[in-house]
Design a protein that fits this description.
It is built from 16 helices and 16 strands. The protein has 375 residues and is of the alpha/beta class. The chain folds into two domains: 93 residues, no CATH class; 247 residues, Rossmann fold (3-Layer(aba) Sandwich). Strands 12-11-10-13-14 form a five-stranded parallel beta sheet, sandwiched between helices. α2 packs antiparallel against α11, α2 crosses α12 and α5 crosses α6. This is Asparagine synthase C-terminal domain-containing protein.
């Protein structure tokens, strides 16, 4: 079992508690595979097992012939007769079961809810073990809070020279008195890494590749410096209303919900799809991700936030910024943050490489065609 004591998971199964106080888990328990409600630990199975009727499984899809990701919040029974049963993907219906879903609560009172978030966030970032740990640092409130909990860990930022993330990280590190190591990217590094991230994640669409590339190249540098764990701010945008489409939910067609709170819960639901991509890429680069903002206590507190504690007067992540007051400098707590693929210029430069290789913007999915040409 990865991520939690088996006794805790066993109790969570018996009580159907989706948030039993862990940072995510997956593994085999009492003849079943289990995966936590947010899918923070990916686990794969393969019903084709030449030496056994029992499905093979692994944390690494490369170990399996036809790997299938176990859905978040599900269990898969490993033993049993599968004759004359329907299937979901490769998994027989009588073997799979949805056991955990996130609670759908009424919003809490503003001050109390924000205070709960502050307590949960600070406890989670401060309990991180700093041994052989580095911090992925972009200069925004997410990574600054994570860094605040491990004051002796080095901070790393990745990007092309002159990019937003490097400038923001340098300013934030200076304000916080932190050591910052800059991983400067090149076109050659992107071209080399594209096939590697596709191989590691199994994904080749431009959006996924653009998101993973800077994380992967930063993690390589971290591993080369002798660190094997990387603290990241994953989950902050989803939990705390960090997306423009959430702030503008009433008018933005990219979300189905019409309220900030509804759109935030919609974004939380996307984590199960995103996290395996990032976890697999970081592990392939040689580091284990540590995501304190995705601890159950933080998720539990975030679910109670009213809409105005998520977005207010155009300011996003209101409650998370409040948690940073007095912990990180005001200039950092209020700083704007760009998505990593844009803030690092990776998306811009991958597009440039595609056009230089003859894949013009007038062509359908020109960056996707370029990615395919590198594989």
């Amino acid at each position: 079992m990865r991520g939690a004591d088996p006794a805790v998971v066993r109790d969570a199964l018996s009580t159907a508690d989706p948030l039993p106080g862990t940072a995510g888990f997956a593994g085999e328990l009492d003849g079943r595979l289990v995966r936590d409600v947010l899918g923070r630990q990916p686990i794969f199975f393969d019903t084709f097992s030449p030496d056994s009727d029992r499905p093979a499984w692994s944390y690494d899809p490369e170990d399996l012939i036809e790997p299938t990701l176990l859905p978040a919040g599900h269990t898969l029974r490993l033993d049993g007769d599968d004759s004359e049963t329907d299937t979901v993907g490769d998994a027989p219906l009588d073997r799979t079961e949805s056991v955990w879903t996130l609670p759908d609560r009424d919003p809490g009172e503003y001050d109390e809810s924000v205070a709960r978030v502050e307590a949960a966030v600070l406890e989670s970032v401060r309990e991180v073990d700093a041994e052989r740990l580095a911090v992925a640092f972009s200069g925004g409130i997410d990574s600054a809070l994570v860094a605040s909990g491990v004051p002796d860990a080095p901070c790393y930022v990745v990007g092309f020279p002159g990019c937003h993330d490097i400038a923001a990280a340098e300013a934030a590190a200076d304000a916080m008195g932190r050591e910052l190591r800059v991983v400067e990217l090149t076109h050659e590094a992107l071209e080399r890494a594209v096939p590697e991230v596709v191989h590691a994640t199994g994904r080749r669409n431009p959006m996924d590749v653009n998101i993973v590339l800077p994380l992967y190249l930063l993690a390589e540098a971290v591993a080369a410096d002798g660190y094997d764990r990387l603290a990241v701010g994953q989950g902050a945008d989803e939990l705390f209303g960090g997306y423009a489409k959430v702030a503008e939910a009433a008018d933005d067609p990219r979300v189905e919900a019409e309220t900030v709170r509804g759109a935030t819960h919609e974004m939380i639901g996307t984590l199960a799809e995103q996290l395996p991509r990032d976890v697999l890429a970081l592990r392939h680069a040689g580091v284990e991700p540590v995501a304190p903002l995705l601890h159950d206590r933080v998720v539990d507190a975030a679910l109670d936030l009213p809409g105005e504690a998520l977005v207010s007067d155009g300011t996003r992540k209101v409650a998370l910024r409040a948690a940073g007051e007095g912990v990180v400098p005001e200039s950092v707590a209020g700083a704007d943050k760009k998505a990593v693929q844009y803030g690092s210029y990776v998306s811009r430069e991958l597009d440039r490489l595609a056009r230089q290789a003859g894949f013009k913007r007038r062509m359908e999915n020109h960056v996707g065609q370029y990615i395919e040409s590198l594989l």
